[in-house]
Amino acid sequence: MKRQSKTRRWLVATVPVCLSLVVLAAGGGRVVQATQTAQDVPVCAAPTAPPGPAKPTTVSTIEQAYHCIFERWYGGRTLDNRVLLTAAFAGFTQELNRRGLEAADATMPPLTGDRQHDWAAFRAVYERVGGDLPDDAALRQALAAATITAMVSMLRDNHARWQYVELPPGYQPGYEYGLGIATSPSSGLTRNAPQEALPPLYVNSVRGGPAADKALRPGDIIESVNGAPPFAAGILSTGAVEQLYPQYPDADPVRLALRRPATGRTWAVTLKPALFKPTAEATTTMTSQLLRGGVAYFRLTGFTQKSADLVLQAIAELRNSRRLRGVVLDLRGNRGGSPTEANRLLGAFTHGKTTAYHCDADSNCTANRTDDTVPLLNLPLVVLTDRDCASACDHFSSAVKDLQLGPLIGTRTSGIIAGPSAPYLLNDNSLLLLPALRHLGPNRELIDGVGVAPDHYLPLTAKDVSTGRDPAIAKALTLLDH
Fold it and tell me: How far is C-alpha 223 from the chain's CA centre?
């Protein structure tokens, strides 16, 4: 199988959960909105327009990221620069080794703890080793990407990320590249907290493209990926799962062994990654339906702009025709988004409450509060959660639990909620996303890495999805009956 450089990962119109601050809109491989280049702004400044097309990542880009971390990251002021540079150098040499290009002089220089002095020593070795390598732009890009990725990963912060965007020729807004599936556990959980992932791995939704062409369905269990099981002795194989999210442009076909719980059928299929337009259902933020007895059900896939108003408007429309007796809010698979939207929706169920705290490195905290401009619905609330409920979804769920707004049904939330991030533009038109604050729950408890426990543990299984059953909704209706 061909090795895919991390820099080839194609990210379209997305940023990490809770970070919907920059929207990339492109056509024909070009950004169609006004763009901003790194030369227009000082180092570590927030972009005011979508970045221009990706440019080569160089040692000066790594230097920008290095200094930006100290300036903007939550723990940057007290961060030991030697730890940061050691991680960066390890990423660099590991990529050399993977490519069979081990260099005798690729030795970490002595570090003193002085940020400027140590950077100069690091750069000297990086440039000396790089100067002896083949004149191959793709190789140099891969090495720089491995270096900067390892440096950011050392922060062990699930809201810190380096985002390098390459758009394919002929790309149109709204298209995606890949196999056309989303899985449970999700890619967010398997990448950010693989130790938390539990078997089996199954198709959670079919977004279109190759998976739709081969008639895959939600609930289909993935028993192997290119011959390798996604779990071995209950432990996630990240290498196997990563192949389900192929990188543009030259990703290999992926062979899956599948089992459909609803029928017992087993079969194998080969999916060729492709550019495709996802289905309308796959890109819908909010869906709703009226359940028995006048219960309004809403599935919210993200706290995106105006998502709270979509829910509130739908409730108002339902109330025009009938009396409602409760709301079921399904946040399973909700990858987060805007804390403001979460606070606005919470304001429909209570007023004058603190929903979270955002704290700096000195433990100076600012309270997030309910949006009290939203009229109270005066309806009972039940919230459905799972391990893919992340970031702003963690925020919302912890507020519901701490403020006793209603029961949580499902499984513990992801706990991927280090703090709200902001993007900073680097000179290759990549973005470095860093949180300046740490998130705490309404009772000042730590949610990050822990998640929010449900009041009623009721996981949704692959068999449930495959057969169209949903025990959590059934439980919610039972609770609302009393």
Answer: 24
Class of domain 286-421+436-480: alpha beta
Contact of 424 with 68, CB cutoff 8 Å: yes
Question: Residue with structure tokens 């799962």?
Answer: 241
How far is 123 from 59, CA to CA, in rounded Å? Answer: 7
343: nearest Cα among 368, 306, 375 = 368
How many residues does the structure list for the chain?
A: 482
**CA-only gyration radius of the chain, Å:** 23
The C-alpha atoms of residue 106 and residue 29 are separated, in whole angstroms, by 36
Residue 185: asked if its preceding bond is cis (omega within 30°), the reply is yes
Q: Shortest CA distance to 47 belongs to which of 62, 60, 59, 33?
A: 33
What's the CA angle centered on 408, arms 402 and 409, to 5 degrees?
165
What does DSSP assign to residue 38? G
As averages over each run of 10 residues, the pLDDT of the chain (482 residues) reads 34 32 28 38 76 92 96 95 98 96 94 97 97 95 97 96 81 88 91 88 96 97 97 92 83 96 98 93 94 97 96 96 96 96 98 98 96 98 96 98 98 96 94 97 97 97 97 97 87
Helix (H, G, I), strand (E, B) or coil at 62: helix
Beta pairing class for 421-425 and 431-435: antiparallel
Amino acid 313 reads: Q
**Token pair in block for residue 101:** 């290009």
Q: What is the residue extent of each domain of the chain?
A: 6-163, 178-276, 286-421+436-480
Closest by CA position to 269, among listed 255, 250, 252 = 255
Residue 206's DSSP bridge partners are: 181
Q: What distance separates the 2 farthest-apart alpha carbons in the chain?
A: 76
**Token pair for 344:** 């606005």
Report how far residue 266's alpha carbon sits from residue 258's, in angstroms, rounded to the nearest whole number. Answer: 6
Is there a shared CATH topology between the 178-276 domain and the 286-421+436-480 domain?
Answer: no
Short-list 70, 98, 105, CA closest to 84: 70
pTM of the model: 0.88
Among the listed residues 48, 62, 55, 121, the one whose alpha carbon sits nearest the alpha carbon of residue 91: 62
- What's domain 178-276's superfamily in CATH? PDZ domain (2.30.42.10)
